């Protein structure tokens, strides 16, 4: 899973209603990824993605050698099928292969500088994920039910959800709400941080959201939402440890058994007819009871070229504060017993640059691809970061897509 996904994991994005049938809707439908019943054709999609993290420099690693990190190859197949009586269903299956080394813990070198201790061997994993959704209009409300199952060597997750969208007659506002639930079972395998890690554990996650979409005019949409997420159970990482200076040793990662978070988001879509282009602006604020708070701002430009091409450059900025119990390493044991040096709980900022290109082909085919570059650094964060984590990510993400309508 990419860091961008990690940053938003468990925090449902605003679900918005179907856009009106205008030039704005035609231009931005794919990028908005809105649910709805407007799909009137069978559509199949294939996505390939290659994710590769940047190597760690020798001075970032305790062993003093350059180390490779994770790379992930993803294949996804998706089918969208309209049914009778304003019904539709979609099905998607994703297959991923993952390999590489992962940070194990952080400890100080002889000068007190944080350096990484990496996993001993290359980790090799596979993941299969299946997702189904069923859409139906009842009593003027569009309902969407979802069901998913994900399996890895050491992890199983079963999830489901329900979403509703309603547009009052003659209104420029569409209201949406939904809930989701996931039950996850963890069985650490070879590569876990040590023999003192749990044999198995589980957690459950609940998410709720409510939002609205305002059609300001035929060229402009504004979407706002509030979402709540609750995780309960085993929330530590069995593949990471935390170093205690007074013990001259690392102990297992230990985090609270619950986490509650709240997110506020807004998305603006504006179509410019004279330029055949659309501007997308997204903002999201998140805060939880681990004292992690974050800001995300994303700008994207979707430009139609020669009628059948669409070019979409984007830039995204992210900043978060640290969890209350996080530290790169610890002088001594905390009184509450918590300890985690996971870079995902550290204070940092990140910048993502991306570009996407799509081409409409004869016979209702479409091909496309894109590339993203991501870099996390303490310098990009709001406020001053006293001690930067040495394991902050840099990665490249390449994706290729092919779709067909029948």
Q: Helical element count?
A: 2
The rounded distance between the terminal residues' Cα atoms is 32 Å
Strand order of the largest sheet: 1-2-3-6-7-8-9-10-11-14-15-16-17-18-19-20
The SSE order reads HHEEEEEEEEEEEEEEEEEEEE
**Major β-sheet annotation:** 16 strands, antiparallel, barrel
Description:
The chain is mainly beta and 406 residues long. It has two helices and 20 strands. The strands form three sheets. It has a 16-stranded antiparallel beta barrel with strand order 1-2-3-6-7-8-9-10-11-14-15-16-17-18-19-20. A two-stranded antiparallel sheet has the order 4-5. Strands 12-13 form a two-stranded antiparallel ribbon. The longest helix has 10 residues, at 23-32. The protein is globular and about 65 Å long. The model is unreliable at 1-38 (pLDDT under 50).
Task: Give a short overview.
The chain is built from two helices and 20 strands. The protein is mostly beta strands and 406 residues long.
